Task: structure prediction
Amino acid sequence: MSDKGKALPDYTDPVLLEALTELKAVFNDGISEYQLIKQLQQPPWLLFDGVELSEPLAMFRCHFVLFNALYSLSEAWRQQGLGELDIHTLNIRLKPATAYTAGVTGYDGLKAYYLNWDNFTDTNGADIEALLDDFWQRMAGRNLPPGDVAKARLTLELDTDGELTPAELKKQYRKLLQQHHPDKGGSTARAQEISQAYRILCGQHN
Result:
């Protein structure tokens, strides 16, 4: 059998699936990935406890595990006619289910990526730099309201309307992340805000 025809191993955390099912109502109005992780860290779930989201590899692994579960759950809900999830880092929202016909639905590259655990195990710290430049940018929200872009610029301590090259953006991001890294006495919340603002502004350069 070809690699394409082989079933991929499924390591999706059943506890995480249960938690997301219990939290289904939060997807009606939409919720950001960051907000969802914060809810999952609270009782009774206590998931992703101790994960250092300001550390790039830890952030990627947390993100991958969550999105793997979201795509798995979305597919199950879709097949059951319960709706499906529109999944983006800045907004995860439940929408009406499309008609399910086995083997007929279109190819979803992101879904395929997150359901393949090789992409989790094969990604190391050296790969994250490229992911921040490429993969995260394609996932970042596009056509955002001007207020969101302005807020992201303020978070990164940039002029609100000045021209900005990708190289300048990355340099400022690295500078602030280093200053506010929790290991150097900074705030985890501030480091997370910096990372999210960077992803927002990356999307404006695509």
